[in-house]
Amino acid sequence: MKPADIALNERIIFALDVAEPRQAMELVDRLDSGIKYFKVGMQLFFAGGWPVVEYIAKRGNRVMLDLKLYDIPATVRLAVEQFRDRGVTMTTVHACGPVVEAALAADTGIDLLAVTVLTSLGEEHLRELRYPGSLEELVLERATTALDLGCHGVVCSAREASLLRARLGRDFLMVTPGIRPSGSADNDQQRIATPGQAIADGATYLVVGRPIRDAGQPVEVIAAIQAEIAAALTP
Predict the structure, then answer these.
(1) Class of domain 9-233
(2) Surface-to-core class of residue 124, CB atoms within 10 Å of its CB (0-12 exposed, 13-18 middle, 19+ buried)
(3) Tens place of pLDDT per residue across the chain (235 aa)
(4) Which residue, 214, 228, 231, 232, is CA-closest to 14?
(5) Is 68 annotated in the active site?
(6) Could you tell me which of 71, 75, 115, 106 has the C-alpha nearest to residue 88?
(7) Cα 80 from Cα 83, distance rounded (Å)
(8) 193-202 burial, b for 16+ CB within 10 Å, e for fewer?
(9) pTM listed for this prediction
């Protein structure tokens, strides 16, 4: 799908980062009049499994299955094959060459995203890993590897969005977590950005969880974020 063809109510991917499947389904019921894309991560998937994914999809929504797979190639391929015909639109693996190749070999028709560097990590973590370059260089290196192999897109923080667009072009999906509307708490995220900044810098989709989930009036927060996205998309 071309970025220009994406509906405004699909630009936000709401992170269903809750432990109870019933709570997740209630959030979908409450929010999918305004949001049509939902992220199911490890916590919820391990608690609710495929019934949660299928519930979301049957209501006419899209699902990002965010399990960040990383294992030996044969195991990754076999795992991704299980996602076929389950209502999953996008899924994630770590941006390791053999892992990306194995996930693509499953050939499920699902958009594959390579996770570059988690948004909870900062420069100090690279020093612990003894990586000689900057965090931006590591994100660019991993994104380049994944896209050269045929990956459909990447997950990165909005801080690296403009760099990746400038160096790698616009012909790939870019999903950015760590989105915080003005006034929101950072929580455990280090590399954050506002919705408008992320879209202006080249993000295709924005992952937003707690700022919506914990709001007193979540529907109003959604509308405000969508207005900011629309403004950033206006030439």
Answers:
(1) alpha beta
(2) exposed
(3) 566 689 999 999 999 999 999 999 999 999 999 999 999 999 999 999 999 999 999 999 999 999 999 999 999 999 999 999 999 999 999 999 999 999 999 999 999 999 998 877 666 777 777 777 788 999 999 999 999 999 999 999 988 999 999 999 999 999 999 888 765 554 544 556 899 999 999 999 999 999 999 999 999 999 999 999 999 999 8
(4) 214
(5) yes
(6) 106
(7) 5
(8) bbbbbbbbbb
(9) 0.91
Q: Where are the domains of the chain?
A: 9-233
What one-letter code names the amino acid at 1?
Answer: M
Q: Which helix (H) or strand (E) holds 192?
A: none
Among candidates 99, 92, 86, which has minimal Cα distance to 173? 92
Compute CA distances 103 → 43, 86, 150, 167, whole Å: 21, 16, 11, 25
- Which of the residues 2, 36, 58, 68 is marked catalytic? 68
* Structure tokens that stand for 114 in this block: 């390579």
